[in-house]
Design goal:
Blueprint: H1 6-18, E1 40-44, E2 47-50, E3 55-58, H2 73-85, H3 95-106, E4 112-116, H4 119-134, E5 138-142, E6 170-173, H5 178-187, E7 192-197, H6 213-226, E8 229-233, E9 256-259, E10 270-274, H7 279-284, H8 295-310, H9 313-335, E11 339-342, E12 349-352, H10 359-370, E13 373-374, H11 389-408
Parallel strand pairs: 3-13, 5-6, 5-7, 7-8, 8-9
Antiparallel strand pairs: 1-2, 2-3, 4-10, 9-10, 11-12
Length: 418
């Protein structure tokens, strides 16, 4: 392997002088193996290059935003054309209306859209709309489910600086457990404004879990019975499971859905979509941001949504994802590893059996990274429409070599965390 990370180390040292911790948030590599690159110079299609010139087939897709390929030519052309006219102006461009029209036309439960910047903006806006509509305060959310990084929803492990009262009205239930959800409603009868649900359980460090239809239908029924709203947080999974809200695959329509990451192919924009009966409540709240109405990301959204509507992007993602999943399962069996691949194939999480301290996962994925395939040892990954069958073939060559390398030193692997 001709691989080095000299430049990345220098960049990390520079960053530590001026950025607390050198990096923060979900893009920080502080919990990843030491050889994982922190800084990337450029991206193209399904590939990334770091500052040492190493090329990677990327299975993180910027943690989701890359749906159609980095620097997709149609989308980038739309952005440049809008930039030539203006981006952040005193008022929005008409492209905002076109983006809303397109979005609403694709999502069956939606009659209106409101745009913001990050997924946390969208989930927080949905919470405020639910409270405005119901005049109630309690929000039911699944235990450990990720809904963003504001004090009300930041993961408990990262909650320093937040106060108990920031979560005073957040009540937790067990995901995929209709009895747990019903009990939460009963305990807070007449107080519940909304139930938040992710399209599937995609927590870190644990196997992903598909929702069962009974749970999804119970969530809808309980919300209707108790006068609460059902909110599907599609920020992570949106448009990778369906050309509609992800729970449309379960024949369940939410009142509100939250979107981000991919519907502008990585350009900074997120959204809340809602049903007609919530239009008045959505109009009554005050929510804003200096850059929420920027026109260039709206233009990116229009271009991306048209491709989502008109192309076979989703079928292609699913096909290569299944190709990868099948190939990895065969390799793991051949080399004697228990590889668990959970969740949708296009958003895979890969964990190993008998690997409580993640030593196998860290070693295997480090071997893959050094050979040019970027995998993640504890977070779900993403495939894009830019991944090709040839990319999967190359990836499987790398993962096969990684399995072989780890097998040779399996008895001497150190734990992931000292």
């Amino acid at each position: 392997m001709n691989w080095s990370n000299t430049q990345d180390k220098l960049l990390r040292e520079r960053a530590r002088q001026v950025i607390p911790g050198g990096m923060y948030g979900h893009l920080s590599t502080s919990l990843l193996p030491a050889d994982y690159p922190q800084y990337f110079q450029r991206g193209e299609g399904a590939r990334l290059w770091d500052y040492d010139g190493n090329e990677y087939i990327d299975y993180l897709c910027a943690y989701g935003p890359n749906l159609l390929g980095y620097r997709h030519p149609e989308i980038e052309a739309a952005v440049l054309a809008q930039l030539a006219q203006g981006d952040v102006l005193t008022g929005p461009s008409a492209v905002m209306i076109e983006a809303a029209e397109l979005f609403v036309s694709l999502v069956s439960h939606a009659e209106w859209a409101m745009f913001c910047k990050n997924g946390t903006d969208a989930t927080t806006m949905a919470m405020v709309i639910a409270r405005a509509h119901t005049d109630r305060r309690v929000i039911l959310a699944a235990q450990n489910a990720y809904h963003g990084a504001d004090p009300w929803c930041v993961p408990a492990a990262f909650s320093k600086g937040t106060l108990p009262e920031d979560r005073a009205s957040i009540v937790y239930y067990d995901y995929n457990d209709e009895e747990s959800l019903a009990a939460a409603f009963d305990e807070h009868r007449g107080q519940v404004a909304a139930v938040f649900a992710t399209p599937f359980r995609h927590d870190t460090f644990v196997d992903q879990e598909d929702p069962n239809q009974a749970y999804a239908q119970a969530a809808r029924r309980l919300c209707d019975e108790h006068g609460a709203l059902l909110v599907v947080d599609d920020v992570r999974a949106g448009f990778r499971l369906a050309r509609d809200c992800s729970w449309s695959t379960l024949n369940v329509e939410p009142d509100l859905s939250c979107w981000g990451k991919c519907f502008a192919n990585g350009h900074p924009i997120s959204a809340v979509l809602g049903a007609e009966h919530l239009r008045k409540a959505a109009s009554s709240i005050f929510t804003t941001g200096s850059f929420w109405f920027a026109a260039a990301p709206m233009a990116a959204a229009v271009a991306t949504l048209k491709i989502i509507r008109d192309s076979d992007y989703l079928e292609r993602i699913v096909a290569v994802s299944q190709q990868l999943r099948t190939g990895l399962a065969e390799q793991a069996g051949t080399h004697g590893f228990g590889l668990k691949q959970t969740g949708p194939a296009q958003m895979p999480l890969m964990l190993f059996e008998d690997d409580a301290d993640f030593r196998i996962a860290y070693a295997w994925m480090t071997e893959a990274v050094k050979r040019g395939v970027y995998l993640h040892p504890y977070h779900n990954m993403f495939l894009s429409a830019a991944h090709t069958e040839q990319d999967i073939v190359k990836t499987l060559e790398v993962t096969d070599a990684a399995f072989e390398a780890v097998k040779k030193r399996i008895d001497s692997l150190p734990p992931a965390w000292a």
